[in-house]
Amino acid sequence: MSILKLFGLDSRPQAGESRAETETVRKIVAELDHLPEERARFVAAFAYILSRVARADLEVSAEETAAMEGIVVEHGRLPEQQAIIVVQMAKTQNALFGGTENFVVTREFNQLADRGQKLALLDCLFAVSAADESISTAEDTVIRQIADELKLDHADFIEVRRRFRDKLAVLKQPPPDEPR
User: Fold this and answer.
1) Which residue of 1, 161, 171, 180 has the smallest Cβ count within 10 Å?
2) Mean pLDDT score, 151-165
């Protein structure tokens, strides 16, 4: 199965695209298509859930994008060029269909992943959120919701969250010149 189909994207050229650009994209997509179907589904769902948290505050920073790419390289065992494409596709799909696809994709990941992989994802979600040095309340809330959807215990959530405590916006002290 094509990874583009997993993300609901089509590789046909759009109006205004040059033949060279289209050919480059096709070559990259062809590389992604060589992944075994189950692994492609796992990586696609993993990247999508990362983008779900990054977009929780309605803005995906450059730091969050870079963190997602690094995480997909490490956990998805993909070359950097493929990870960049996967992350971009995940971000695009989340921006377009996040409201309707969030639970469905997380449920699929829940079926594909074992407990260790779910806990690793939870850690990665906090890492992406903390990439810009602050985990917003919205991001924290979405991570908690994802942990619930993955059937992880509240204690699991708290244990991972504790490691990122210094990045939680709700626990940060306001600068001295701001009123409390």
Assistant:
1) 180
2) 96
| Rounded Cα gap, residues 139 and 168, in angstroms | 10
Contact 122, 156 (CB under 8 A): yes
Give how many domains the chain has, as a whole number.
1
Q: 107 in a domain, yes or no?
A: yes
134 and 54 Cβ atoms separated by less than 8 Å: no
| pTM of the entire predicted model | 0.80
The CATH number assigned to the domain holding 121 equals: 1.10.3680.10
3-state secondary structure 26-49: HHHHHHHCCCCHHHHHHHHHHHHH
Q: Report residue 42 as tokens.
A: 């796992």
- Each residue of 73-83: pLDDT tens digit? 999 899 998 99
Q: Range of 50's domain? A: 3-8+22-169
Task: Classify residue 32: in a domain, yes or no.
Answer: yes
The label of the residue with tokens 């810009």 reads 132
